[in-house]
Specification:
This protein has 349 residues and is mostly helical. Among the domains are: 112 residues, Orthogonal Bundle (Arc Repressor Mutant, subunit A); 38 residues, no CATH class. 49% of the residues lie in helices and 3% in strands. Helix 2 packs across helix 7 and helix 7 packs parallel to helix 9.
Length: 349
């Protein structure tokens, strides 16, 4: 994980080689995987369990949907995968899914298929990314000895980007920190943008309630943006009622005012942006100094068409991730079969 590597490098610059002796520096999922391999038998797995990726998960769910005699076009596997991922992010096992939640898929069969999915994963000695946290939550809640072991081990707990934590991560931290209550979290309630994948900004909003006596330090000086940019951002976010509040300031020069342009559609947006770029070029700006940020990859299409038509050189950054390429997934499937001959999903691929 890039963010975890960068964090390790930054810590290394501060403390030196000591960072190499810090095995518990990583993402929630990486730490969860490490813990789960030590206690896998407590949830019916072996320590060499396989971690399924999204493609494997969807293929397994399609098999279960077909076995349940459901129309996969009406009840797509991706929809069920999203529900299961959401339930796991909330820390819910199949037994904890109520009728209302179950009704969200196939007229009330959501809980049944979630349970069948978990049973199939156990038979494959596999888990998905959500299980790395959910299984360990179940273990920590159920086994006092294991919980006590990690409460003793983790004398200090530090969490970055706390506003992006979901329910299962929050429950993890409450359990691990309840003994020593020595937890430090860094986050920005105004930067919570991942609610669509389960993040709950409420976790940071109620931090002082969860940990009475906590010291709050507001980092309000901005080193990147100009006063005009900060003023525009503060004016927008001030309309959000679910926030702790802060007053951003900077020592940078005032800079240019923020310009907001309204357009009706993608082609018009691409035309206006290309005109801005051409104007900047005439004023002496190099294309290397121009960047266009988009929310989704498909939005680049309109810009590409426009830039080709107007002769503006460009470079797309992004695309398929390395491990999502078909040839890489094929090679990994071979390796998984060698490591675990019972891995039917890898064999099928």
């Amino acid at each position: 994980n890039k963010a975890a590597r960068e964090m390790r490098e930054r810590v290394g610059r501060l403390v030196g080689d000591v960072v190499e002796g810090m095995p518990w520096l990583g993402t929630f999922h990486a730490i969860g995987a490490k813990m789960l391999r030590r206690h896998a038998e407590l949830v019916g797995l072996q320590s060499n369990f396989t971690i399924l990726d999204t493609d494997d998960q969807l293929r397994l769910l399609k098999q279960l949907i077909q076995a349940a005699d459901l129309d996969e076009k009406r009840w797509p596997a991706r929809q069920l995968a999203g529900l299961i991922d959401g339930w796991k992010n909330k820390g819910l096992t199949p037994a904890q899914i109520d009728a209302g939640e179950s009704e969200l898929y196939a007229n009330g069969r959501g809980q049944e298929l979630y349970a069948a999915y978990q049973t199939r994963l156990a038979a494959l000695n596999a888990c998905d990314f959500g299980d790395l946290l959910l299984h360990m939550l179940v273990i920590l809640q159920r086994d006092r000895d294991v919980l006590a072991e990690y409460q003793r081990r983790f004398k200090y707990i530090m969490v970055d980007e706390y506003q992006d934590t979901n329910s299962v991560q929050y429950l993890w931290l409450r359990l691990l920190a309840q003994e020593r209550k020595n937890i430090a979290c860094v986050g920005d309630d105004d930067q919570s943008i991942y609610s669509w994948r389960g993040a709950q900004v409420e976790n940071i909003l109620k931090f002082e309630k969860d940990f009475p006596g906590a010291k709050i330090i507001r980092l309000e000086q901005n080193y990147r943006s100009t006063p005009h940019i900060l003023g525009a951002a503060s004016g927008v976010i001030a309309n959000n009622s679910g926030r702790l509040g802060k007053q951003l300031w900077t020592e940078l020069d005032v800079g240019e005012k923020v310009k907001v342009l309204g357009v009706w559609d993608g082609p018009e947006e691409a035309r206006r942006v290309s005109e801005e770029i051409e104007s900047a070029q005439r004023a002496g700006t190099s294309l290397d100094e121009v960047a266009i940020l988009v929310r989704a990859q498909h939005q680049t299409r309109e810009f590409e068409d426009r830039f080709i038509a107007t002769g503006i050189n460009y470079r797309i950054v992004g695309g398929f991730r390395f491990y999502e390429r078909a040839e890489i997934r094929d090679a990994l499937a071979y390796l998984r079969v060698v490591a675990q001959p019972a891995d039917d999903l890898a064999f099928d691929r």
